[in-house]
Specification:
Layout: H1 3-7, E1 9-11, E2 33-39, H2 58-65, E3 68-70, E4 73-74, H3 80-89, H4 117-123, E5 127-133, E6 162-166, E7 177-179, E8 182-183, E9 193-195, E10 226-227, E11 230-231, E12 235-237, H5 249-263, E13 269-274, H6 296-318, E14 324-330, H7 366-369, E15 373-376, E16 385-387, E17 391-392, H8 396-404, H9 420-424, E18 434-437, E19 443-446, E20 450-453, E21 462-463, E22 468-469, E23 477-480, H10 495-510, E24 513-515
Parallel strand pairs: 2-13, 2-14, 3-16, 4-17, 5-6, 5-13
Antiparallel strand pairs: 1-24, 3-15, 6-7, 7-8, 9-12, 10-11, 14-15, 18-19, 19-20, 20-23, 21-22
Length: 516
């Protein structure tokens, strides 16, 4: 790291940050609608516009071709729950001990009373909605939810006016949609019971009843309760007509989102549209079957692109495209075999889900957290471009607060900085540093020139179930980021750089660093 980069950092205690307001005298109707399209486990190399050759993603390409495609955009963590927590709160998930990968019956991880992205938009006069994968807990206490009644704490307590979500992911029970805090299409004749401790008497499991797995079989784990011919993590009884069919998940999420767009066409809205694709179990709709040589994983990427297309088509029809700011990204890097026998590994056919990056989901290496980031806003982005500046999802709350003129309460979103100019292409100055977080809580610091990975005691080089290179080492690691691949640890050659990046990490941990 050079002296000018270090000089961009000043030390100060940061317990809250005030962000600039836009001119309230301007015509507020010109503020854009905002849509986050958040994919699940979509890798840096999984989209056509990022170099993929085995799958066509024309709708995502349209966003990239007419917006800004970032090549150094980062999720804050290499797994789902902490990335989503950080995105929606502007606070690094690793600051708390209860933000790891959540089970399906987790209590609310973002607590009622915390300030969220939805609260920010709501305070700026936006209608707010969430669709799809949630994976941040529901109810007040883990394992104590009554799924047969309205939940005492849900997304309405976090600033969302409307929500139609999955409690966690498709591979975890309960396998039902939650609409505004209660099970959608609830079946009175078949009450729902969920446990992550023990099975319910007489209920089949993937482990004991593999003959009932007519859709997908597990490759590792994922062998507990069976829903729709697929075994899951956790135990569930009941559900009846409320149970989802995996092949219809994308349709259900997308059509509810489309309906919401039509209903709110005449007011400003913020939509958090979090798809299940391409997370396991991958079981896309029949109309995508046989359409990609990579099999189910490739077809799931196609299905994700279809969902993007339905959103774009609806915006076009409503005349809202030009003044809708769309940010498309992923919660973490890719994983190929994550628990089901879907032949994803055998059928890659040369496809590289992480592109040229090392590692993937769960990893300290770049493949874990460097993800696609595309920003599209015809009214606000002067020209299409590809940008290599450093950006992080942690900053999106503060950046969009600056856009809307919202004030963030003191002490909230303290890890989020106003980098709005980066997002819309008016500022090509790198974020001086980005913090990356691995599944085992190892932290890294990325600057334009370098990447430092702190030493850890995790002896695993490879996560065997997923064949993911984890990047663990008992000594500090330093990589020259002007050379692709994170292949040579040059920490011994540049002790002064290691020291500087260790200082940044220490100061970020202690909240004694402020970015100019």
């Amino acid at each position: 790291m050079n002296n000018s980069s270090i000089g961009a950092l000043s030390l100060a205690m940061v317990c809250g940050t005030a962000y600039a307001q836009t001119d309230k005298s301007s015509d507020e109707r010109q503020l854009p609608n905002v849509i986050f399209i958040y994919a699940d486990d979509l890798g840096y190399g999984d989209l056509e516009c990022y170099g993929a050759h085995n799958v066509s993603t024309p709708n995502v390409n349209r966003l990239a071709d007419n917006g800004i495609r970032f090549t150094n955009g980062y999720a804050s963590s290499s797994t789902s729950t902490p990335s989503r927590y950080s995105l929606l709160t502007g606070e690094y998930a690793w600051r708390r001990k209860d933000t790891g990968i959540a089970r399906g019956d987790a209590g609310m991880i973002i607590r009622p009373g915390q300030y969220t992205m939805a609260d920010m938009f709501k305070s700026a006069g936006y209608a707010t909605a969430a669709f799809g994968k949630w994976h941040l807990g529901l109810g007040t206490e883990t394992g104590k939810q009554d799924w047969n009644a309205p939940l005492p704490a849900a997304l309405g307590d976090l600033g969302f006016d409307y929500s139609y979500i999955m409690a966690a992911t498709a591979d975890r029970v309960p396998c039902v949609f939650i609409e505004n805090g209660q099970v959608a299409n609830y079946d009175l004749s078949d009450p729902i019971y969920v446990s992550y401790e023990e099975n319910f008497p007489g209920e089949p499991t993937g482990k004991d009843n593999p003959e009932l797995l007519y859709n997908l079989k597990p490759s590792h784990g994922h062998d507990q309760s069976i829903v729709n011919g697929i075994s899951r993590i956790g135990y569930m009884k009941g559900g009846g007509k409320a149970l989802w069919k995996d092949e219809n998940i994308a349709d259900s999420i997308t059509e509810h989102a489309v309906r919401y767009l039509r209903q709110h066409r005449n007011e400003r809205f913020f939509m958090y549209f979090a798809t299940n694709d391409i997370h396991v179990p991958r079981f896309p709709h029949e109309r995508f079957r046989g359409k990609n040589k990579m099999g189910l994983r490739g077809e799931a990427i196609m299905q994700f692109d279809w969902s993007v297309g339905r959103i774009l088509q609806t915006l076009d029809e409503l005349g809202l495209t030009d003044n809708t700011l769309i940010i498309l990204s992923s919660d973490n890097g890719p994983v190929v075999d994550d628990g089901y026998q879907d032949r994803a590994v055998e059928l890659l056919n040369g496809h590289r889900p992480a592109g040229d990056l090392r590692g993937g989901k769960y990893s300290t290496f770049e493949g874990g957290t460097r993800v696609p980031v595309i920003v599209h806003w015809p009214n606000g982005i002067s020209k299409p471009q590809v940008s290599d500046i450093l950006i992080s999802q942690i900053d999106w709350l503060a950046s969009l607060a600056a856009l809307t003129g919202a004030r963030i309460p003191r002490g909230c979103a303290f890890d989020s900085y106003d980098r709005l100019g980066n997002l819309i292409g008016t500022d090509t100055t790198d974020r001086p540093w980005v913090i990356e977080h691995a599944a085992n809580n190892t932290l890294s610091v990325r600057t334009p020139e370098w990447k430092y990975i702190e030493a850890n005691d995790d002896s695993r080089a490879i996560l065997k179930n997923t064949n993911t290179e984890l990047g663990n080492a008992p000594i500090p690691q330093l990589y020259d980021m002007t050379v692709a691949g994170e292949r040579e640890n040059v920490a011994a050659k540049h002790p002064e750089v290691v020291f500087e990046l260790q200082q940044i990490l220490r100061q970020v941990r202690n909240r004694t660093i402020k970015m100019k």
